[in-house]
Design a protein that fits this description.
It is a single chain. By secondary structure, the chain is α+β, with helices and mostly antiparallel strands. 24% of the residues lie in helices and 32% in strands. The chain has nine helices and 16 strands.
Length: 358
């Protein structure tokens, strides 16, 4: 069976707002209820989501001094994600903080534990503030994930790609400049048996013409033999547009091989165990002039992480910038990098694929 996903319809930022005080919860609950009802999420689960949202807002007000944000995302499935990211001091001991009864501000200390219990899935990343003089992000990221079905049940009208049985997990982030209706960044994914293929594009500039350059390209994932051929097919199709830069990847889970090719100013990182490799691609623009892409090949082994990003994501990050993050769920990685490392002058997107096998 072949499943195809398109970030234009399957990865959507539905709501984003700063959290400065408890009043942020009023509009958040209204938005959350409307979205959950549209996705067919049960009344009981909507109550769970409201409680989780309340805890997340309360945590940011108490611990981050109102320096945080809350987002609601729809991911393939559909899946509804509640994301809370702050710029506070971080949590010094996360495992202790997640225990019921623990509190650093003389409250009941049930917040983090309730988030974990009420969510279908939850993921957390924190980085404690540094006193070594280096400028690093400090804060905490909470991701609470909800499915339309009963707890831990995958969607019935689609397939969640966040955590696949083969050991493959995927995370997506795609946001247009100023949350405009048009987004020139686009990610196509195709999963066939034990093979994942993806095409990650960035149309030149932004707005309607940039989106037009990256539209209707999913079919090349099925009809081409390798990442290089995918890029050649895209090059031919978009000659009458303003053009795009792109990365194509293929991850063979059975053979444990990763192949990546690209053209233009996009970034890709591949992490094998603890080593992060940064890839550079052929200069130029698809649909215009460019040099021929030279593919990269990696033996994926039992653990491999592949990250592709448009130039709307800044490049000055690495393993040392976010210690421990790259061993966590790809969707948490995507949200963290997408929000912290984004450039506000362009569309922004990330595609992250992870293999973990015994």
């Amino acid at each position: 069976m072949t499943r195809t996903f398109d970030s234009a319809t399957d990865c959507r930022l539905l709501y984003s707002s700063p959290v400065q005080n408890e009043s942020a919860l009023i509009l958040l609950r209204a938005k959350l209820f409307a979205i959950a009802q549209r996705l067919g999420i049960s009344e009981q689960k909507r109550e769970y989501m409201a409680l989780v949202a309340s805890e997340l807002v309360s945590n940011q007000v108490k611990h981050a001094g109102g320096r945080g944000l809350i987002q609601l995302w729809q991911q393939p499935g559909p899946v509804l994600d509640i994301l809370a990211l702050d710029y506070g001091p971080g949590i010094a001991n996360l495992s202790l903080a997640e225990k019921d009864g623990y509190s650093s501000v003389s409250t009941l200390g049930k917040g983090l534990g309730s988030i974990r219990r009420l969510s279908d899935e939850s993921f957390t990343y924190t980085q404690h503030e540094s006193h070594d003089g280096l400028k690093k992000w400090s804060g905490t990221v909470f991701l609470a994930r909800f499915y339309p079905g009963s707890k831990k049940m995958k969607p019935i009208n689609g397939t969640d790609i966040g955590d696949l049985a083969s050991g493959l997990s995927i995370g997506l982030f795609s946001r247009s400049l100023s949350n405009d209706r048009y987004n020139g960044d686009r990610i196509y994914l195709q999963i066939t048996g034990e093979t994942l293929r993806w095409l990650h594009l960035d149309g030149l500039g932004h707005g309607e013409q940039a989106q037009a350059a990256t539209a209707n390209l999913a079919s090349h994932l099925a009809h081409c033999d390798n990442p290089g051929a995918i890029l050649e097919a895209v090059d031919r199709q978009i000659k009458d547009t303003r053009g795009a830069v792109a990365i194509a990847g293929e991850l063979d889970l059975a053979g444990q091989v990763l192949n990546i090719a690209g053209v233009g100013d996009m970034q890709a990182r591949v992490m094998e165990n603890e080593e992060m490799h940064s890839l550079s691609f052929a200069p130029g623009v698809l649909g215009k002039e460019h040099k021929r892409s030279v593919p990269f090949r990696f033996d994926a082994g039992k653990r491999c992480l592949a990250i592709t990003a448009s130039d709307g994501i800044r490049k000055n990050w690495g393993v040392s910038s976010f210690p421990g993050l790259f061993h966590l769920h790809p969707q948490l990685i995507a949200y963290t990098l997408g929000n912290i490392m984004s450039r506000i002058s362009d569309d922004q997107s990330l595609c992250i694929a992870s293999i973990k096998s015994e």
